[in-house]
Specification:
The complex is a heterodimer. In chain A, about 65% of the residues lie in helices and about 5% in strands. By secondary structure, chain A is mainly alpha-helical. Chain A has a domain of about 200 residues: Orthogonal Bundle (MetI-like fold), CATH 1.10.3720.10. In chain A, the strands form 2 sheets. Chain A has a two-stranded antiparallel sheet with strand order 1-2. A two-stranded antiparallel sheet of chain A has the order 3-4. In chain A, helix 4 packs parallel to helix 13, helix 5 runs antiparallel to helix 8 and helix 9 crosses helix 10. The longest helix of chain A has about 35 residues. Chain A is globular and about 75 Å long. The two termini of chain A are about 25 Å apart. Among the domains of chain B are: about 170 residues, Rossmann fold, CATH 3.40.50.300; about 70 residues, no CATH class. Helix content of chain B is about 40%, strand content about 25%. Chain B has 23 helices and 20 strands. In chain B, the strands form 4 sheets. In chain B, strands 6-7-8-3-9-10 form a 6-stranded mixed beta sheet, with helices on both faces. A 6-stranded mixed beta sheet of chain B has the order 16-17-18-13-19-20, sandwiched between helices. In chain B, strand 17, helix 19 and strand 18 form a beta-alpha-beta unit. Chains A and B meet through helix 1, helix 9, helix 10 and helix 14 of A and strand 1, strand 2, strand 16, helix 16 and helix 17 of B.
Chain lengths: ~350, ~550
Amino acid sequence: MAINSKKTKKAAAEVEQNSEVGKDVIQIQGLSQGQIIRKKFFAHKPAVAGLIFMILFTLFVFSASGIHLGSEKDPFTIQGWWKFAHTDTILTSDCPTGCPTWNHPMGYVPTQAKDYFALVMRGSEISLMVMVVIGSLGGLIGTVMGSVSGFFGGIIDAVMMRFTDFIITVPSILIGAVIGYRMGNLGVLPLAVFLGLFAWTGLTRLVRGEFLSLREREFVDAARVAGASNTRIIFKHILPNSVGVIIVSTTLLLSGAILTETGLSFLGFGVQYPDVSLGVLISEHQGEFIYAPWLFWWPGVIIVAIALSINFIGDGLRDAFDPRQRRQLKRKDYLAKTSTRDAVNKK
Amino acid sequence: MATKDPILKVKDFNVEFWVDGVWYPAAINMNFEVAAGEVLAIVGESGSGKSTTAMGLMGLLADNARTSGSVLVKGTEMLNQPLSTIRKFRGKEVAYIFQEPMTALNPVYTVGFQIVEVLRNHFEMGPQVAKQRAIELLTMVEIPEPERSFDKYPHQLSGGQRQRAMIAQSLACDPALLIADEPTTALDVTVQAEILDLMRNLKDKLNSAVLLITHDMGVVADLSDRILVMKDGLTVEENTSDIIFNKPKHPYTQSLLASVPKLGSIKARSLAAASVKAEPVLEVQDLVIEYPKSGRIPAFRAVDGVTFSIQPGEILGLVGESGSGKTTVGRATIGLLPVHEGSIKILGEEIAGAKMRDLKKIRQHTGIVFQDPASSLNPRLPIGESIGEPIYLAGLAKGDELNTKVEDLLDSVELPRSYRNRYPHELSGGQKQRVGIARALALSPNLLIADEPTSALDVSVQARFLDLLQELQDRLKFACLFITHDIGVVDILAHRIAVMQYGKLVEIGPRDQILNKPKELYTKTLLAAVPVPDPKEQKKRREARARLLAGI
């Protein structure tokens, strides 16, 4: 508690200092929406931590296992710094149970005769790629479809929403199965793209709803009177106001992407042997949780870490876009002394 | 009339809110009593803590509030008691009338159901008996066709009728104390006068104590016996109505009374002769605007054959009740609504049927200030950018040049330059409306359309706002279409006044003629309904209005 309050005091002092500095800056120039958002995002500690973790982790993973693109016949490969690849078969281990050693820092899989670090790196690479592709495609299509549909309304809205309904009725696991079956040999990228092309429906509905209510607000009229075009009204005025919905929904989409990919792989349509993903690693080794827990823990911890960082980044973005934030009231706060109005106003 | 034992006795009552890590006092050491048959008015600007006090009495505040002191209702302590105790009093002994009848009534239940619910919550009553009683109540509050209105949903009633239904609901259990929180703020003047009449009659009939919360001194003068003036959570002054209105002691009370616009207290503003002869800035000819039919709802003619013009540097006040089509005229003038028939010319350029590109050019000569400052500013855009947007989009300035222009505009509406990086929610209502003006004036327009810019503001803020607008108008000489329902405001500003009703222009003429010698009956009733902040004068006006209405 004491440490906490010290920290908050320090943070408060910092904020004050910042605002002092800010005032000097203000005298010279006004900040645009983008500048303020950037400033607020980088002041959000968990979000920055999440962002740094994601960047470092991505670099670490991709440099460790190298880059493997293209089909089996025509591979495009850059070698990584880790001595084993996920395809390498290693016949001996320092530890008879396959526990982590210097040679195999994350352990060894005796049944497959593979280095687990190489497998986890490769799995993380695949999972990150699937997540990014599905998330960005789904997020982008969903946002644009929802914005246009909600903003223009009328016949455009009706046509787009019926199309959305049609897509919703097609189960994505079936699409994945078909694509995986037909194009499984092309690797996981085409699969991710196709899943992304079917993952935007929920987001579209939410964004459309937001737009329907926001476009009736007077500030939209004010922007129109000021001479703003439809594109500018959509992207500059309304979209920042619906960022909360978009971020929450996209974050869910990202974690959902891992699950979809794991499910498909489990059915035998997604990531195929010898390729792996984090989901595949977990589902393969869940039976060994008691006697070889490291096989379960590493991919599990990484999935949790990725999901957490994405959530933190999402939180930071949402708070940066949202000018008002509220803190929950705690029990000890009820006993605090009353301040004077002047003190509060000065703040 | 008033009995000795007070119904409500409040002692050392404090309300505090948790804001940014500290307790912020919203009401400090409140002491007051209300006896049966008495009306105590709590008056103050927004933020003075008057509504908070009213809500705090019955424990209706949000979770981040704490209360202390003592609140006795008929001798029973209410403050910080278990919910079961308070609930017995809520609705039965203490009833609320809220500001916004549309949000205070549940839209998915009929009005009748909601009244029956209150009755059956507090009394053991069969559905049939409760329905009879509810219809009785609806009859008492003078809702037309009470039997049919019983089965109507809130949206099927007009604003005034909704407020009547709310009052019927709150009177359901013959409450000893009625708390009316800005009961007429959302209503038109004529409807407001009716509701005030109704409340006065009911209070005498039921001998209830009434706690009236309002910022409108006219309403206070009309209804209250005693007045308590609040500022920044403190009681500034408490006394009988007569003394407060005629011999206010505290300087704040004096300034509050001084800022209330009084009809006919100001001399007419004359227009420079040159601008009378010049080409009109705005020419509206036989304007018809229809909202197209949707589904089974037929097309609605909101504006029907309106003709007027505005000279350069002239302020035309457009007055009417809600639904009269005045806002529609304003929005059409700036091209936000399609014109059905007739023509609108700004500086000789036709707006009706103009293409997007032409419209954009014409709009550079016009500016609009919207009614609700909270809604008309983008909540996610710092205000500096909101103000600079018209300039940026017109391609007149960028970067540093734009910054200096925004600074100049902020200066001209008397806002500190450092405010430009703030978001709208960090500003008060009056400040937001100043931002609205700054944005409207960004391109130094020839025509400013002000759509009820003061309706969301306090009287004293409104007075400062009107001063500012007048000063800017004197300096920049723009023509202005000032749309409002408040005749007192038009009285201060306008050179000429136009009165609208049901989409038609009833009367248009110079300010003095409209205010002093109105020709049309509707204008007369509209003027008679405006409450005057003086109890004696208001009594006279009330009787005069009754005679006028009896004459119809």
